[in-house]
Design a protein that fits this description.
This protein is an all-beta fold and about 270 residues long. The chain has a single domain, classed as Jelly Rolls (Sandwich). The chain is built from no helices and 23 strands.
């Protein structure tokens, strides 16, 4: 499994992480122009639409209920220009995205599910923003699809790193069933960089003694995707370049914050 994927457009919708590549998560990127539509059936997977740039309407049709339509979803110019707007789309649905801005850029993330829950618009006051960390590992974390929104597996949000700063720090992982602290949750990061010629790094590594251990540093550029089936995964932005990543989690439990810090580096939480 290739855990570091470079962006290559393949039409309006590009499937970046095909379902089955990871145990739970799938991911694709949608690029459309004004007036264009994209329709698909969810099948036995729940979905979350993350509008990276532009705006759209989203119509969701289900056999068991009247259609739901969310108008004017999104509106920011880029992921660096404010909090996200997302839409939760349940299983056994057909959704249609209609673009109302000149350009439109979005991510579609999915995970297997069995329960047909209600669609939900996650925007404005329903998105929480939190300044996390200290010193040069301070960043902004937006949580849109949190535990307060009914879903079966998916959790979703975005993180914005100032230039030169670290995030996912201190290094943490969520790959062991070790209650009450840690749960099994795989993750996908989709990166954007401003200015776009910039870069950052992510170090993915496992705990000492892991029988399937690894330690890999990936340089990440604008549009890269990194798969995180297991292990610690700290991120850093190069000086002069803001770094942003959309993050989506899915796993055996649905608990945001169910992770374990690398015990060698957990002490930095006490820094102010």
């Amino acid at each position: 499994m290739d855990r570091h994927l470079k962006w290559q457009a393949q039409g309006k919708f590009t499937e970046i992480v095909e379902p089955g590549t990871l145990r739970f998560l799938g991911f694709g990127r949608l690029l459309l122009s004004k007036g264009e539509q994209y329709s698909e059936e969810t099948g036995d997977r729940e979905w979350v639409l993350d509008v990276f740039a532009g705006s759209c309407t989203v119509k969701i049709e289900r056999d068991s209920a009247a259609p739901t339509e969310f108008k004017q979803v999104g509106g920011r110019d880029s992921v660096f220009d404010g909090p996200p707007a997302m839409v939760y789309i349940p299983i056994s649905s057909r959704y249609t995205i209609t673009v109302i801005s000149e350009k439109f850029d979005a991510g579609l993330f999915s995970a297997p599910a069995k329960t047909a829950l209600a669609p939900a618009l996650l925007a404005n006051g329903s998105v929480t923003a939190k300044e996390v960390g200290a010193s040069n590992w301070k960043r902004t974390v937006y949580t849109a699809l949190g535990e307060d929104v009914p879903a079966e597996r998916l959790l979703a949000g975005e993180t914005l790193n100032p230039a030169g700063n670290w995030s996912s720090y201190p290094p943490h992982k969520h790959d062991r069933n070790n209650p009450p602290g840690e749960a099994v949750l795989e993750e996908i990061y989709f990166f954007r960089i401003r200015p776009s010629q910039g870069y950052g790094f992510i170090w993915t590594y496992t705990a000492p003694g892991d029988p399937d251990g690894f330690s890999t540093v990936f340089p990440v550029e604008d549009g890269d995707t990194v798969l995180l089936p297991k292990g610690y995964h700290p991120v850093v932005a190069a000086p002069g370049y803001e770094l942003h990543y959309a993050w989506v989690l899915a796993g055996e439990e649905r608990r945001y914050g169910a992770w374990a810090d690398d015990p060698r580096h957990a002490w930095v939480r006490n820094l102010k």
